[in-house]
Design brief:
This protein is α/β, with parallel strands linked by helices. It has 2 domains: 1-49, no CATH class; 51-285, Creatininase (Rossmann fold, 3-Layer(aba) Sandwich), CATH 3.40.50.10310. Helix content is 44%, strand content 7%. The protein contains 11 helices and 4 strands, in the order αααβαβαβαβααααα. It has helices at 4-18, 37-44, 58-66, 90-106, 140-156, 172-186, 198-201, 205-211, 216-219, 225-234, 264-285; strands at 71-76, 109-111, 161-166, 192-195. It has a 4-stranded parallel β-sheet, with helices on both faces. Strand 1, helix 4 and strand 2 (109-111) form a beta-alpha-beta unit. Helix 4 crosses helix 10, helix 5 packs across helix 6 (172-186) and helix 10 (225-234) crosses helix 11. The longest helix is centred in the C-terminal third of the chain and has 22 residues, at 264-285. Residues 3-34 have low confidence and may be disordered.
Length: 289
């Protein structure tokens, strides 16, 4: 969703500029169908309401850094199988929404494009998630080099705090290692890297689900209640409702747990807990900014 409110505000502002349209698409009150030049100018001058670097121009990014947005979030998310009921890009859709919320909560952050190629198993012979069609893997050393040079690039442009957050398991150790490597090299000169592992591994969501009556078996370890619920909340169109089944419905489905017990309400809580855990850890790492 990339921040539902953030996405709606520009559209509402544009609607206010142009006015209501008639049933045939003509401007209200008749007159020329061409847009009013003054309205076009007003629309063009609207502030950019995004935290995503890929949705900004380079001059907008330059000015944002100069104005104090010197924290850059680098999200990583695997492209992997998620059973027959959930799309391969699950992690990216979830991390996009989470990164948007985290950046806006921090108030001084922008979000770099998500890294969606991460370690997912061996190619030959296929192992891990690579046993399932569509999964894309990257050897850990190359993943680490990709993350390293993304961080070096962001530092070169003036970002002073680089935040690594991963939505999948195979990328956690690589991000942590790169953060330690760069911090040792830079010694606090120019930028500091913060590996934020609490977002993924210490957010309390699993414990909360068990308090709701779920069990380790129903929650599962992959494509079960947790991620299915969060994606139902963030992007429900990417859940194949007719394919929901305990354990995926067949042997070697790629599902651990019972995704039929997932809900958007569970997902709302899960998203909030992940974001809160990340923001707490970031603020602690940066000295309670």
């Amino acid at each position: 969703m990339r921040g539902l409110v953030g996405a709606l505000l520009p559209a509402l502002a544009l609607a206010a500029c142009y006015g209501e349209e008639g049933a045939e698409g003509a401007p209200a009150g008749g007159g020329s169908s061409a847009a009013d030049p003054e309205a076009q100018t007003a629309a063009a001058s609207l502030p950019v309401n995004t935290v995503f670097i890929e949705e900004m121009t380079w001059t907008e990014i330059r000015d944002a850094i100069a104005a104090g947005k010197t924290t850059a979030i680098l999200p990583t998310a695997g492209t992997e199988q998620n059973g027959p009921h959930m799309v391969m890009g699950k992690h990216r859709y979830i991390i996009d929404e989470a990164s948007d919320r985290i950046a806006r909560e921090l108030g001084n952050a922008l979000v770099a494009p998500a890294v969606t190629y991460v370690p997912e198993g061996e190619v030959d012979p296929p192992s891990g998630h690579m046993r399932y069609a569509g999964t894309i893997t990257l050897p850990n050393e190359f993943f680490m080099k990709l993350v390293e040079y993304a961080a070096r690039s962001l530092r070169a442009h003036g970002f002073t705090d680089l935040v690594f957050i991963g939505d999948s398991g195979g990328n956690q150790r690589g991000m942590e290692a790169v953060a330690a490597q760069l911090n040792d090299e830079w010694g606090g000169d120019g930028a500091t890297v913060h590996f934020i592992g609490d977002y993924y591994a210490n957010n309390g969501f699993r414990d909360w689900l068990m308090e709701q009556g779920e069990t380790n078996e129903t929650i599962g370890r992959h494509a079960g209640i947790s991620d299915t619920s969060i994606l139902l909340y963030v992007e429900p169109r990417h859940i194949r409702q007719d394919q929901l089944a305990p354990g995926g419905g067949f042997e070697n489905s790629g599902v651990s747990g019972d995704p039929t017990r997932a809900s958007a309400e569970y997902g709302r809580v899960g998203m909030e807990m992940r974001v809160d855990a990340a923001v707490r850890q970031i603020r602690a790492a940066m000295g309670s900014m």
